[in-house]
Amino acid sequence: MWPRLVEAWRRPGGYRPGATLARLSLDWPELDCQAEEEAERRFRFPHGEWSFSARERVEAGWLAYMVACEFRLTVPGAPGRARIRLRHGGFWRRRGIVVDLLDGDATALAPLLERLRADADVRAALSPLDFKRCELHGGQDGWLLCLEPYGASEVACRLPPLRRYIGLRGVQGLAVLASLAACRRVLLAAEAGRG
Questions:
Q1: Which of 14, 34, 97, 167 is deepest in the core (most CB within 10 A)?
Q2: pTM to 2 decimal places
Q3: How many C-beta atoms lie closer than 10 Å to residue 170's C-beta?
Q4: Mean pLDDT (the chain, rounded)
Q5: Is residue 143 within 8 Å of residue 75, measured between CB atoms?
Q6: Is 62 helix (H, G, I), strand (E, B) or coil?
Q7: What are phi and psi of 6, to 5 degrees?
Q8: 178: exposed, middle or buried (Cβ count in 10 Å: 0-12, 13-18, 19+)
């Protein structure tokens, strides 16, 4: 009870939990969408065997705040403790995808890192995507992929009064779905190769 009260107290004025996710579900009418919590939804493909969730993350400023959607995909396995970051290479121009090991056993994770670096689908999916963060977290329960694109976010300002939603349609929306699918396939192949 107390953590929820503290979280509600920290929310910026005017923040409407679930509003950004409702706009996101309109961007993807072909996906089934179910609300799990106030600011979290699960998306399923109509004939697919896997799903992913999206949750709102609020960044408050002085007279403005931003609501970003973080996409989360769980993949079964037993990787142990690990944290891997995927990012765009190059400073001014994108030069491929860089895979960095931030935490974990480098020797045990070397085959997975090589798979991620060499996989053409991961490169093709992430290259056109404008994203703030893409990380793989390994733990006792398996892998968790966290992807936060710049799209599917809302910016709200008090002075001047302004609210703008940045949609996730077209190339950016397809790139998010393709990135989730490609990373899932690589993680499942890596787990199958270990067994």
A1: 97
A2: 0.88
A3: 10
A4: 89
A5: yes
A6: coil
A7: -65, -40
A8: middle
